[in-house]
Every structure is written in C-alpha cells, then in structure tokens.
Design brief:
- The protein has about 425 residues and is α+β, with helices and mostly antiparallel strands.
- It is built from 6 helices and 27 strands.
- Strands 10, 11, 13, 14 and 15 form a 5-stranded antiparallel β-sheet that branches.
- A hairpin with a 2-residue loop joins β19 and β20.
- α3 packs parallel to α6.
C-alpha cells in the first residue's frame, strides 16, 4: 500500500470520528456570522461549509506529517533497517500532504450553513481571516490562491486577495460577512478502456496545461475522499457506466486528469510483505498517459461542456518482472525492495518488494518509456518473525542473516512485458548483531 493511500485512510478515520455529546462550555473569543446565497438562484446555499482561513500560516499540517514520519522512522529502526533519506520528489509529496492536513484542521472549526443560509462561529481567536465557502457546483474563490500567494507581498497578488471577503476580530467583538457564490463551469464525458468497457471508480480532477507532473496531484487524488467526508472538497468519480462530470470550475483552460490507485494483484493483509506501491494509473484528456501531449479544454463562466470522452489505452500497459540473486553463488534473496523511477518524470516512483522466491513485479506500466530499476536493502532473512502495527497495518520485522549491496539497470518497456530482469548483488561485510 502506498504512503498516500495510508494517509487517505488515516484522514478518513479522523474525519469520521464523532465526539460524544456534552454540555457546551463557555467559549471565549469573537463571534462571526453571516449568510451564504447562490448568486444564480438567490437561494440559500443550504448545508454548505463556511471556513475561516487565517492570514497567518497554519503549521498544523507540518506538525502532523512530522509525527507520521517519526512514527515510520521508529518502525524502521525496530526492523533493523536504517531510515531512508527522502528524495526531492518524496519531500514535495510530503509538503502536498501537509497542505491537505491543513484543510482537515480547517474543517474542525468550519461552520455548516442552515436552511435559511445563515452560519455562525463562536470563540474566534483575534486575527484577520478570509471567509469562504465550499458548496457543490460553485466556485470557492480562495481555492484559486496557494499558501504562497496568501503570504506574498506582490502588489498584483495582494490586489486579487483584497477582493475576497475578510474579517478582523479582536477576540471580544463580533463580525459579519455575507457570501454570494457564483456557479462554476462544468465538463462531462465518459471514461472507458480501449475495448469499450466502462472505466469504473476512477477519480477525475483538472490541471493547468503546460504544467509538469507534480506529487501534489497524486496526494490530492488520494486524500480527496477523506476531505470530502468533512465537506472540504468535491470529488468527481466515474460511475458504473464510466460517466463523469466535473463542476464548480472557474473560467479557464484545463487538462482532464483521471487517476486510479489500487493494491497489487494478489496482495492482501495476509501477504502484505510481498506488496509495494500498488497500481497507480493516470490518463489525461487526449487518451494519453503523457501529460505533455494531453488535450486541453477551454471553459467560460457557467459553461456546461459535454462529450469530453477519454479512452484508457490499456493495450499500452505492460509489466516488468525479475529476480534478485546473490553474485557469489546465484541463490535468490528474499528481503528488500526494488525501486522504479523515470528520468523524464521524477514524480513517477514505485516500489516492489523482493518476495520469498527472490522475484519482484511492477504491473500496468505505460510502454514506450525507459524505467530505472534499483535494488535497495537486499538481504537474506526470515520473514515469519515478530510484527508490529503501524497506522493500523500489520508489518513483519524480518530477521536478517546477510546483507547485500545495490544494483541499478535501465529497462526500455516497449509493446510487450519484460520478464527477464536479473540483479546480481554482492554480499557486504555486515554481521548480524549478537543476540
């Protein structure tokens, strides 16, 4: 299971938690109230979510991700393996996850809009806040700004931010802010495989044209379901017929991005140690796995653009399999990992475990790409030893007898599977600790 999937599960559990009812304590702080209406109908935005975004950066997400990282490092130490240094792309992914956790902390103090469109906050700490709302089909103006924009001193950025609703409170007063939400544009279509069958359960998002792959895209897809439980985001998913509709979009030009993340074929809780990063597929409008060649769509205010069908070119997906053996005598190793990266796209990073028979497997990879494979932490060991629970998952601690070095190779995946990769790694001078 990938780290982003683990984060999604954890956030879902957090947002699903309900505290027991108890007597409301006296709350010290300012009161903020107002109404939220839909600009196109003048109707109340019933049960929308209103949030207060402080102009002072929130470090809650950073603190949360540090706790997760510390927990995984501690677990790695128990297994006898040295903690791994994060790559630049993994660091970017952590930053993206931190921003997602910032949203989660926002929802813990969000306010739900009533039937008459009213909302209220009590106990607001002194400070200046942007007041914004999230409502299905409507534009959240604050979503057009990053944390870097909010902290920017650029006059042009500050002028745009000045158009957002905001309030300043001292901690003992009251403030009022009414919001009118503009309906966004929508784009719809059908996602199918190249044999015509519907692609069910894929998550749809939009990205800006001429932008590179970003770890934040994958993180956003992974945690969106958890955030949606708290009313913090809208999720768009293909139905049983493969149909999708993405709404609430500001005017602009977009690339459609469809993503699917599932566990490895044949891997369950019983043999989790044989798993890895799972199957992670991303296809873009224009029926391509390559973001640079994706086809963009242009939306005007309130537009309803249909017929934007996408075909998943599954005939271009292939597997890479192989074995890891000792250079000295050719016996297969049974502990460790093989990593996979793409030089032209650093955000592509997957891991596959070295299984008991020395094999490893990467499934459903786009062809016409050169992949770099690297053996990491290879060893001879016993995998039926004690285990621990990390974030609710049962992780074994293999007993290591011998450790081996690393090896790297490049595999060009064309229009067929590659099943002949063999790594020959040399034993190191490591000795197991005395029991």
């Amino acid at each position: 299971m990938s780290s982003s999937a683990r984060l999604s599960i954890l956030l879902a559990c957090l947002l699903a938690t309900r505290l027991p009812a108890q007597q409301t304590p006296y709350v010290v702080g300012s009161t903020v109230s107002g109404h939220v209406f839909c600009a196109d109908t003048n109707a109340p935005a019933r049960f929308a979510k209103v949030l207060l975004k402080s102009t002072t950066p929130n470090h809650a997400g950073d603190d949360f991700m540090k706790a997760i990282t510390d927990s995984m490092t501690k677990a790695s130490g128990k297994s006898g393996r040295p903690p791994k240094t994060q790559t630049d792309e993994q660091k970017k992914a952590t930053v993206a996850a931190s921003k997602g956790m910032d949203l989660v902390t926002d929802t813990l103090s969000s306010s739900t809009v009533g039937l008459d469109g009213s909302y209220s906050f009590a106990g607001v700490k002194p400070g200046t806040y942007y007041v914004h709302a999230i409502f299905s089909g409507y534009i959240d103006p604050l979503s057009q700004f990053s944390d870097e924009d909010i902290a920017s001193t650029d006059p042009a950025v500050r002028a745009r931010l000045a158009q957002l609703a905001s309030i300043t409170v001292t901690g003992t007063d009251s403030a009022h802010a009414d919001l009118r939400l503009e309906r966004g544009a929508a784009v719809s279509g059908r996602l199918s495989y190249d044999d015509g069958t519907p692609a069910v359960g894929w998550f749809l998002t939009v990205v800006k044209p001429n932008t590179p792959e970003d770890p934040g895209d994958a993180i956003a897809s992974a945690i969106a379901p958890a955030l949606a439980m708290g009313g913090l985001t809208q999720i768009f998913k293909t139905d049983d017929l493969g149909h999708f509709r993405i709404s609430g979009l500001p005017p602009g030009e977009y690339i459609l991005r469809a993503a699917l993340t599932v566990s490895e074929v044949g891997i369950s809780a019983a043999n989790m140690g044989d798993g890895g990063s799972g199957v992670n597929l991303v296809v873009y409008s224009g029926d391509t796995f390559n973001r640079a060649s994706a086809k963009a769509v242009k939306l005007i205010a309130g537009d309803e653009l249909s017929g934007n069908d996408i075909t998943v070119p599954s005939h271009r997906l292939h597997n890479i399999t192989g074995h890891v053996v000792a250079k000295s005598d050719g016996h297969t190793l049974n502990v460790g990992e093989v990593s996979l990266t793409v030089k032209e796209n650093p955000t592509t990073h997957a891991m596959a475990a070295i299984r008991d028979d020395g094999s490893f497997r990467f499934e459903n990879l786009p062809g016409s790409i050169s992949y770099t494979l690297t053996v990491e932490s290879a060893a001879d060991g016993r995998n039926d030893g004690p285990a621990s629970n990390v974030m609710g998952m049962h992780l074994p601690h293999p007993e290591i007898f011998r450790k081996y070095g690393t090896d790297t190779t490049t595999v060009l995946l064309t229009d067929t599977d590659v099943d002949s990769v063999t790594f020959h790694v040399a034993q190191t001078d490591w000795k197991p600790p005395v029991k």
